[in-house]
Structure formats: structure tokens, C-alpha cells
Design brief:
Blueprint: E1 4-8, H1 15-26, E2 29-32, H2 33-43, H3 46-56, H4 63-73, E3 81-84, H5 90-103, E4 109-114, H6 117-127, H7 134-148, H8 150-157, E5 161-165, H9 170-181
Parallel strand pairs: 1-3, 1-4, 2-3, 4-5
Helix pairs in contact: 2-3, 4-5
Bound molecules: adenosine-5'-diphosphate.
Length: about 180
């Protein structure tokens, strides 16, 4: 069974939900950079103060800050890990590669959660998080298409990509993910 996994896809595709479900059933570590950053904001730490406005505008936090968070939280673990929300651009891909080389734990599989834009926008509006208003949703989708979507092709070339249709019910999607992991 594959143990070093990554979820890729647009905001609202359900990466966090599926990563969490998978983490519960496998006991792999679930590492969501968005979640870790939101925690910092809630706790009002120095880091949280630095990133709050950027996040609420739907923009990307600096590569260096996010890398620090990933390094701090991605421990060498025999159980395995699931990354969600990182990497988000090609520079982050490179940084992650370096980190994983040091850990001697290469990425084994990338789940690409694909879903139509209209579905995404509705889901995000329903979710209603601080960074989920119409304006920031547009910003996040634009940034996703420009900087994150190229990662799909990158991981496809490395033969790591598994395509998941994320426009369906939760259980069907998680069953699909499990089947592809085996
Ligand atoms: P979503 O999947 O809905 O976009 P996330 O929880 O993954 O939400 O991320 C929320 C916000 O956290 C992003 O809009 C961004 O500001 C910041 N963030 C998360 N991960 C990264 C990253 N890898 N690089 C830069 N910023 C990030």
C-alpha cells in the first residue's frame, strides 16, 4: 500500500475532506497547509498576524513561510503521510522534493480531484469561511489555474497522477481513492 500521498485540485474540490477521511482510516498523518495557517491566525501568533490579510484576500502566502511550516510538521513517520494544499506552485514542488529526499521518503501517488468550476463556486459559497466570499473565490480560482494547475501535468509526466472525479458523493469518491491506493 502506498504511504506517501498528495492531494491536488482546485479550492473546494474536497481535498481536505478526503484527506481527513483517508487519514482516519489509515492513521497516516494529514498535513494541510491551509489548516495549519488558519490555526496560526486563530491563535494570533506572529506568523498568523503576517498571513491573515493575505489569506483573507485569497492570495498565496510566501513560499518560504509555507516551507517552514511543512518542514516543522512533516516528520519522518513509518505510518505515512498525506499532503493537502502543498505544493501549490512549481517552486514549492522543488522545495518539497528536497525535503522528501532528506527524509528518504519520496512521493508515491498524487490524487488529482477534478471538478467543474460552477460546482466549486457553489460549494465555496456554501462553506462560508473567512476567505470564501465571491471576490476571494475568484482570486483563488485564478491563482489556482495560473500557478497550481501546471502541477497536474508535472506529476502526470512523473507517472504519479491518479485522476479522481470529485463531482459526486463523498463515499463514492473515497472508495475510488482507496481502490487506486491498493
Ligand atoms: P482551499 O483548498 O479552499 O484553497 P486551503 O485551506 O488549502 O484552502 O488554503 C487556504 C489559504 O491558505 C490559501 O488561499 C492560501 O492563502 C494559504 N495557503 C495554503 N497552502 C498554501 C501554500 N502551499 N502556499 C501558499 N499559500 C498557501
Amino acid at each position: 500500500m502506498k504511504k506517501h500521498l498528495l492531494f491536488l485540485g482546485p479550492p473546494g474540490a474536497g481535498k481536505g475532506t478526503q484527506a481527513e477521511l483517508l487519514s482516519q482510516s489509515t492513521s497516516y498523518l494529514h498535513l494541510s497547509t491551509g489548516e495549519l495557517l488558519r490555526n496560526e491566525v486563530e491563535l494570533g501568533t506572529d506568523l498568523g498576524k503576517q498571513v491573515k490579510d493575505i489569506m483573507n484576500k485569497g492570495k498565496l502566502v510566501s513560499d518560504q513561510l509555507v516551507l517552514e511550516i511543512v518542514k516543522r510538521n512533516l516528520k519522518k513517520s513509518n505510518k505515512g503521510w498525506i499532503l493537502d494544499g502543498y505544493p501549490r506552485n512549481l517552486l514549492q514542488v522543488k522545495s518539497l522534493n528536497d525535503v522528501l529526499r532528506n527524509l528518504n521518503q519520496p512521493l508515491e501517488m498524487v490524487f488529482y480531484l477534478d471538478i467543474p468550476d460552477e460546482v466549486l463556486i457553489n460549494r465555496l459559497l456554501m462553506r462560508g469561511r473567512n476567505d470564501d466570499n465571491e471576490e476571494t473565490i475568484k482570486t483563488r480560482l485564478k491563482i489556482y489555474k495560473e500557478t497550481t494547475e501546471p502541477l497536474v501535468e508535472h506529476y502526470e509526466k512523473l507517472s504519479l497522477l491518479e485522476y479522481i472525479n470529485a463531482d459526486g458523493d463523498l463515499k463514492t469518491i473515497s472508495a475510488d481513492i482507496k481502490r487506486k491506493m491498493a
